[in-house]
Design brief:
heterodimer; A: 347 residues; alpha+beta; Rossmann fold; OB fold (Dihydrolipoamide Acetyltransferase, E2P); 2 domains; 6-stranded mixed sheet; 5-stranded antiparallel sheet; 9 helices; 24% helix; B: 283 residues; mainly alpha; MetI-like fold; 11 helices
């Protein structure tokens, strides 16, 4: 049932405003790609174009290599789960899930039997005959997911379907998506602005900003090897230390850190993740600094540090440590990247 | 379960009182006065004397008037609902042309029925615009003042279908677009989306519109008077004629005729309320 999905140079303009600019992206069969970006970055528009609910200004949508531009939404075999569950209020839960089978001409009995198997998949067969108005938010999204899956889609599009759920329900939904991937292996495109959700669910992440794909790659690569400062920021990176690149070594207030080869010598930013820096005794690290603030994240703490340059404090750095960092504001500390090397970007 | 009013509901009832009180007073006074007049207990002249003559004296004519009115109201309501729903569905599915249709529908609403009836008369009468357009054939049907009240029904269907369309649009236009998108991604064709999504969602607003159109066309006077045949007289035409008669003894009959209109309207309203409650309990 899984198919490949390819966006080939998709652009979309509303009047003079270009929402998508030459977007190209390939999703392999049975893979899950997350489109990550802020509100207004164009990710939902891209999904609507894939589903046939919106037309691109230029470019092609290819399913298994076949151009589906101009094919009506109902004939594309692509299901979309929206941010809101959008359950039909005049139908019961089971009839919502049976909707696609009924539209395909199946009898009510056969469609309901088909729907029940998908309700069991999302653990909601007990509420099959309830009205959607009597479900909780999490249950509604589960039904919406079951309804989309019951269509047996070639591709499943998820448009921030869990964004309105609380964190516990969201984690339950993530487990459910994992179960569905194991059982049905659908091709999934997930739109989200939550980098943790993208990282938890997707095989790869495509970062979309102002209608352009900045980078597409595996989850770890985007976190630790961002292509640009914007990707680093969108992926939650808090550090971009300015400095000078000389022979694959970045020179900055954080010290001399080896970076990836192939970059041209000159000004560059060192993107070192806050989780990848260790606080050590002054003198034991590649740099020293003074703690300026502590911010609790619950189980973790963010330590803000003013790095000591040759002429006093120059740059600030943030380090994330589990539990109590064991340092106080004003204390002098040493800093060292955990793996001894970093990642430099020039823009 | 408790029937006690909370402070909140009491406060809300007080706020509603200025709006509700005049309606209740006017309705109650007029209904009681009409009932008393129809039974001879509030005569225009002479002493009060209980009599059922206004109700039983010419019962056949009263029944014929009632049937004519129910016929006009029923056919007009069905046509208004059908045309109104099609208009609403068109506006929802065709955003550009739909806006024009919506504007035209909205422009139809404030035209008085008297003007509308005059326009329909000019359009559909013998030697009217349509007749002339067709070359004045001998077989042109008697649409105005002919049997079947066709011109009356046409006037009501034209005006009220615009009203129905706007009520339906107002009640579902915000939610139906997203639900139709969801239906499309689930394989529903355009026709299926209208029949399986838009129509069920529009049922409550169609039912409310239906009862409003039915009650209005049942009690409306101008179109039936201008465009209908002399006989049978619809209830409102009969009521107005008897009320304005030089024979003051006809007043009780006018009141009885008006009260029959009220009774039929009440039955229609209660039936729709009952059906709507059943529909909602099924959902």
């Amino acid at each position: 049932m899984s198919s490949s999905l390819e966006f080939a140079s998709i652009s979309r303009s509303f009047g003079n405003t270009e929402v998508l600019h030459q977007v190209s992206l390939t999703v392999e069969p049975s893979c899950c790609v997350a489109l990550l970006g802020a509100s207004g970055s164009g990710k939902s528009t891209l999904l609507r174009i894939a589903a046939g609910l919106d037309q691109s200004s230029s470019g092609q949508v290819l399913v298994d290599g076949e151009n589906v531009n101009g094919v009506p939404s109902e004939q594309r075999g692509i299901a979309l789960v929206f941010q809101k569950p959008l359950l039909f209020p005049h139908l019961t839960v089971v009839d919502n899930v049976a909707f696609s089978a009924r539209m395909a001409g199946q009898s009510r009995k056969a469609a309901r039997q088909h729907a029940m198997s998908y309700l069991e998949l999302v653990h909601l067969s007990a509420v099959a005959h309830r009205s959607p108005g009597r479900l909780s938010g999490g249950q509604e999204q589960r039904v919406a997911l079951a309804r989309a899956l019951a269509r047996n889609p070639r591709i499943l599009l998820l448009d921030e379907p869990f964004s309105s759920l609380d964190s516990r329900l969201r984690e339950d939904m993530h487990l459910l998506v994992e179960d569905i991937r194991t059982e049905l292996a659908p091709t999934i495109v997930l739109v989200t602005h939550d980098r943790r959700e993208a990282s938890a669910l997707a095989d790869s992440i495509a970062v979309l900003d102002n209608g352009r794909i900045l980078q597409h790659g595996p989850v770890a690569q985007l976190h630790y090897q961002p292509a640009t400062l914007a990707v680093n920021r969108i992926l939650g990176g808090l550090n971009a230390v300015p400095g000078e690149l000389i022979g694959d070594v970045h020179h900055s207030a954080l010290g001399r850190i080896a970076v990836q080869p192939g970059l041209v010598n000159g000004p560059a930013f060192l993107t070192v993740r806050q989780e990848a820096i260790r606080i050590v005794a002054p003198g034991d690290g590649t740099a020293t600094g003074c703690v300026t603030a502590l911010k609790s994240l619950g189980a973790h703490t963010l330590v803000h540090i003013a790095l000591s340059g040759e002429s006093g404090p120059s740059e600030t750095l943030t380090v994330e440590v589990p539990g109590d960092p064991g340092v106080a504001v004003g204390r002098s500390i040493g800093l060292r990247p955990t793996d001894g090397c970093g990642w430099a970007v020039t823009r | 379960m408790t029937s006690r009013m909370t402070p909140g509901t009491g406060h809300a009832a007080l706020l509603a009182l200025p709006a509700v009180l005049p309606i209740v007073v006017v309705l109650a006074v007029s209904l009681v006065a009409a009932a008393l007049q129809s039974l001879g207990l509030m005569p225009f002249i002479g002493p009060p004397q209980l009599s059922g003559d206004a109700w039983t004296g010419d019962v056949q004519t009263l029944v014929r008037s009632g049937l004519a009115s129910v016929y006009i109201a029923s056919i007009s309501t069905v046509l208004s609902l059908a045309v109104g729903f099609v208009l609403a569905a068109y506006v929802l599915t065709m955003p550009r042309m739909g806006r024009l249709v919506e504007t035209l529908s909205a422009a139809t609403i404030p035209i008085p029925h008297l003007i509308g009836a005059g326009a329909i008369g000019l359009l559909l009468s013998d030697s009217g615009f349509l007749d002339r357009l067709l070359g004045m054939p001998d077989s042109f049907p008697a649409l105005v003042a002919g049997p079947g009240f066709l011109a009356v029904i046409a006037e009501y269907a034209w005006k009220e279908s615009a009203f129905v369309a706007l009520v339906v649009l107002g009640s579902i236009s915000r939610s139906v677009g997203d639900l139709c998108d969801a239906a499309a991604t689930l394989g529903a064709t355009a026709g299926q989306r209208i029949l399986r999504v838009v129509l069920p969602l529009a049922v409550p607003s169609l039912a409310i519109s239906a009862v409003i159109v039915f009650v209005y066309t049942l009690g409306s006077y101008e179109a039936a008077w201008l465009l209908g045949p002399v006989s049978p007289e619809p209830l409102p035409v009969r009521a107005v004629r008897l009320f304005g008669s030089v024979d003051l003894a006809a007043r009780p009959q006018a009141m009885a005729t008006a009260l029959v209109t009220v009774a039929v309207s009440a039955v229609a309203i209660l039936a729709v309320v009952f059906l709507l409650r059943r529909f909602r309990s099924l959902r």
